[in-house]
Amino acid sequence: MTKRYDADVAIVGYGPTGVIAALTLAGYGISAVAFERDRDIYSRARAVTVNDWTMRIFQDLGIDERIDKVIDPQRALRWMTYDRTEIMRIEHPPSTLGRTPRFYNIYQPTMEAELRAAVQERYDDLVTVHYGDEVTGIEQDADGVTVTSTADGATRTTRARYAIGADGGSSATRGRIGCKLLGDTDDVTWVVVDCHVKRWWPDRDFLTFWSDKERPVVDIALSAGNHRWEIPLKPDETPADYPTSAEIWPLLKALGVSEDDVEIHQHAFYQHHVRMADTFRQGRVFLAGDAAHLMPPWAGAGMQTGMRDAHNLGWKLARVLKGELPESWLDTYEAERRPNAAFYTGLAVGLGRVIKQEVSEEEQAAMNAVPESTVTPFEPPLTAPPVLAGGWIRGETGDASIIGRMIPQPITGDTAGRMARLDDHLGHHFVLLGDQVDPATLLSAEEKAGWDGLGAHYRAVRPKTSHTQGPDELVDLDEVVLPWMRRYGARVIAVRPDRFVAAADTHGLAVPTV
After folding, report:
1. N or C: which end of the chain has fewer CB within 10 A?
2. Which interval of the chain is the signal sequence (predicted)?
3. β-bridge partners, 317
C-alpha cells in the first residue's frame, strides 16, 4: 500500500466533536481532513450547556475568549413540582478550573458556528473540510486508513494515517469497523420546543426540571435570547399530533408560558438512549462522541463528553504522529474516556429518575446527603471537578488521593512578574510542580530520565509571601495550588498536558506505564 497521505488524520463528521478534534490536532501542527454530510450547521438546538471543564479545553485551544462572547453564565439547577415545591437544588459555586462560572447556557448552532470559524481562521492551511461529502467506505491497513466519499455524484478517495469517527449516534463508521452499539432506547418520545424570548419572566435563568410522573419538563434558558422546553408525549400521543406550533402552544400554556413571553421558533422529536459501543477503537480508527456513547440529556453532558473525547484523543494522536509518544499511548484513550462516559451516563439516568418521580424518599435523601469526614470537600457529582478513574496515571485514586484529579487553575505569577492563569504558564507540556522545591531534585536518575523523555518541565511553586529563587518558578498568587497539594500530602505532582495529575511523590514519581 502506498505511503502517500492526504492528511495525517481523517475526521468523519464535523459537529462539535469533530471540530474539537480538528482544533486539537491542528494546534500541534497535525493536518486533518474532515467529511461532513450536511452542507450547513444543523439548525436545531440540541445541547444546552457547557461547564468549566469544557471551557478549560477551549482555553487550551485558544478559543475560550471567543466562545465566552456567545454563551451565558447559568444561575443554578432546581427540581420543582407543579405546585412549585422545590425538591432539590444544585447551586453553582465559583469554578476552580479557571473561569468563575461552573456552567454556561449555550445556543448550539451559534456556538458551533464560532468553533468552525475558529478552525477556518486559524488553521486553514492544516484543516480541510469537505461539506456535502458523505463517507461511503473506510478501509485500513498496517500503514493507514483509506476513506471513500461521494459528493454531487463524484467519488473521492482520501488517505490518512488515522481516522476518527465523529458521525453521531447513527454512526456509519461504527458499523464499518465492526463495532456494536450496546444498551437500550427509551420508548418515550419527547418534543423539544425552541423559542425566542420576547420578555423576561421571574427565575427564567434557573435551569428548572419540572418533576411529574406523567409530564416532567425540562425548562432552560439558552444563550442569545433563546429558551427551550423539553416535554414528553403521553403514551397515546405521537409526533403526528403536533404538526405545527399551534398544537404546541397548549403544552407551554400549561406551564404558564404565553405568546407574550416567547415566540416558538421550531420543534422536534427525539427519544432518550443509554447506549455505548463495545469498543472505541479498531486499529487505526477511533470512535468519539455520540458514535461511541449515547446518554439521556439530564446531566447536560452528551455533547461535552464528545468534545472531551476529541480533546483527549487529539493531543495523544498528535504527539504519537510527531514521534513524541509511542503508539501504545493510544490505548489510553478508551481506558480514560469510557469510564468518564459511563459516569455521566449513570448520572444522567439518576437525575432523570428524580424528574420523573421514580425515586423513593430514601433514595432522594441519599442523593441530597453530604458525606462527612472527607479529605476532598464535597460537591455534587454534577458540579465536582473531573477525576480520571483509570488510564495513564500512577497510584490509587479516591477521596484522599491527588492522583487523577484535575489541578485547579488560579492566577499565578512567574519570576519576571507576569501574572496569568496557571495553564498559560504551564504551556502544552508535562510539568512537575514542587511545593517550594525544585521537583527535579527529588527524582532518582531513572525517574528523571523517564520524565525528560516526555519533554517534561520542572517548576517550583512559591507562596506569594516569598521570593522566587530560580528562572522557572511560579508564584501561587491566589493561594490555591499549594494548599491543594498539601491537602493530599503531596510535595511533588506530575501534571499532564490536559491538567490531570498523573503521579505524585505520595505514590512514587516514576513515569506511569502505558
Report:
1. N
2. none
3. none
Entry pTM: 0.95
Residue appearing with cell numbers 520524565: 451
| pLDDT tens digit sequence for 289-298 | 999 999 998 8
Between 418 and 2, the higher pLDDT residue: 418
Whether residue 45 is predicted with pLDDT greater than 80 in this model: the reply is: no
Mean of pLDDT values over 212-218: 89
The C-alpha cell of 264 is what? Answer: 416558538
**Four-residue CA torsion sign, 251, 256, 257, 260:** positive
Q: What is the mean pLDDT of residues 317-335?
A: 97
CA 240 to chain centre: 35
How many other C-beta atoms can be found within 10 angstroms of the C-beta atom of residue 75? 17
Q: How far apart are CA 410 and CA 407, in angstroms?
A: 10
- Give the residue among 271, 311, 265 at the shortest CA–CA distance from 288: 311
Query: What integer best gives the mean pLDDT of the chain?
Result: 94
Give per-residue burial for 140-175: e unless 16+ CB within 10 Å, then b: beeebbbbebeeeeeebebbbbbbbbbbbbebbbbe
β-strands 217-222, 226-232 pairing = antiparallel
Is the pLDDT at 1 greater than 50? The verdict is: no
d(CA 287, CA 292): 5
Q: 3-state DSSP call for residue 59?
A: helix
